[in-house]
Input
Amino acid sequence: MTSAGAPLSVGFEEQVFFEYWPNGNPRPHIGAMYTSDGVRITRDIATAPTDSDDHLHHKGVWWGHRDVTSSEVSGADVWTEFDGHGRIVPMAPAERAQDGDGVRIVHTTRWVDARDTPLLDDIRTLRAAAPGSDGSQTLDVESTMRATYGSVVLGDTKEAGLVAVRVAPAMEERRGGRIELSSGAVGEAASWGAGSDWCDYSGTVDGETVGIAILDHPDNPRPARWHVREYGLMAVNPFGLSEFTGDSTVSGALALESGASMTFRYRVLVHRGDARAADVAGHYVRYLDELGR
Output
């Protein structure tokens, strides 16, 4: 499937930061995302090597969940593009505005199953900041999900991400890239399913070492766990406890009663160098300072 319409391009000092596809099919997403030096850090599936053109639904930066249950629907897939998948559809055009020195995009959407049965409403706010003195750029992502159509359960599955990224092929761990958590864990084997305040994925693209991190907000309804893979996927997933821990007696399912809502917030940090060179740990401390923590 291809994206419809044109993207909203957000950038600073004549350099594009990212392109947001508000009418993307089957869901809105950020396609291309760049460092402040113009290095693309998300996969371009059209030019990816044959062994990196898997998972069609890994469209740059996206979000969704593969096991959404309501009173009318059981286990709707709003994550993949496999047969019978659902969609995230716009309820209104995306609203773009200046936000101080940055840019804010607000987009009201609806999650639906394969038959267009509504599951929940999702108001997504993206706040992009101008590059910092170290060349880093941040995108704050806020998602308010509301059970407008009756109670809903987001099931216990690894196949979900409230922010998910597919990095450029050259950044993949299997090609020499590096996965690192705030806990100090390095690599997929130590990081997959683990909990930590942030997760970083870095690698060398066109001779330059670059990276992208997702930082957890301390007030989120659930702390972050990381569905992160050596083939280039990094997704913050607070749901898949039984799969992440291997303990079938625990569940990360999250229920929303009819009319209730919940809000998750994350910061996406795009930087030069790996996690240590970019001082991702320091960025997280400053993020907490901004929040008054």
Summary: The chain has three helices and 19 strands. Residues 62-290 form a domain with the Beta-galactosidase; Chain A, domain 5 fold (CATH 2.70.98). The chain has a mean pLDDT of 97.
